[in-house]
């Protein structure tokens, strides 16, 4: 009996990912919506899942982005930065990767890098973000379905709000740089990464 190594590897990949697929995306959504989630342990399963997606699909930018999201919320900021940088290198046109990277930089006090990330985000065309999200059936579609079922969620509306928020955060960041003052922690805690 001859075993096709490629089919065997593909079977292992499918079984591994199916075993790790989250039963619910509610914790990720709660983190994204700043609902005072303190259960960082719930992120461990997501981290393992996205690490495995990257293992089998290293060029899937959205998996890198969501792993960065999980790392950020588990306090692993350097790992989050690395994942968002990789996501950006794989998809230079996606607004949310640059936006989220800017927020990570803000959180660790690297305001110049945050400013650069927000400026880069605002240069991205919204239609590229819409198309990328809609084409991401494995990663974003299950999360978005869960978000839609919870509220009157709309991708275009969220994207418009994201650009507006990015402009405001950029202004706050520039003021902090110009005045050599830190952004108050209370304000930083109101600014959250987005799950997409």
TrEMBL record:
<dbReference type="InterPro" id="IPR019734">
    <property type="entry name" value="TPR_rpt"/>
</dbReference>
<dbReference type="InterPro" id="IPR051685">
    <property type="entry name" value="Ycf3/AcsC/BcsC/TPR_MFPF"/>
</dbReference>
<protein>
    <submittedName>
        <fullName>Uncharacterized protein</fullName>
    </submittedName>
</protein>
<dbReference type="InterPro" id="IPR011990">
    <property type="entry name" value="TPR-like_helical_dom_sf"/>
</dbReference>
<keyword id="KW-0802">TPR repeat</keyword>
<dbReference type="Pfam" id="PF13414">
    <property type="entry name" value="TPR_11"/>
</dbReference>
<keyword id="KW-0677">Repeat</keyword>
């Amino acid at each position: 009996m001859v075993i096709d190594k490629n089919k065997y590897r593909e079977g292992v990949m499918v079984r591994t990912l199916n075993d790790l697929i989250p039963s619910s995306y509610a914790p990720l959504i709660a983190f994204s919506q700043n609902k005072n989630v303190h259960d960082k342990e719930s992120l461990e399963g997501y981290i393992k899942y996205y690490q495995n997606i990257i293992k089998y699909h290293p060029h899937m930018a959205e998996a890198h982005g969501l792993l960065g999201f999980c790392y950020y919320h588990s306090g692993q900021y350097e790992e989050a930065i690395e994942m968002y940088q990789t996501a950006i290198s794989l998809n230079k046109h996606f607004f949310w990767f640059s936006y989220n990277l800017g927020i990570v930089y803000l959180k660790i006090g690297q305001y110049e890098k945050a400013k650069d990330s927000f400026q880069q985000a605002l240069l991205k065309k919204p239609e590229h973000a819409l198309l990328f999200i809609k084409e991401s059936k494995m990663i974003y579609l299950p999360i978005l379905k869960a978000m839609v079922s919870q509220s009157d969620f709309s991708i275009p509306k969220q994207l418009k709000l994201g650009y507006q928020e990015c402009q405001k955060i950029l202004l706050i960041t520039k003021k902090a740089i110009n005045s050599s003052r830190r952004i108050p922690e209370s304000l930083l805690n109101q600014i959250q990464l987005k799950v997409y």
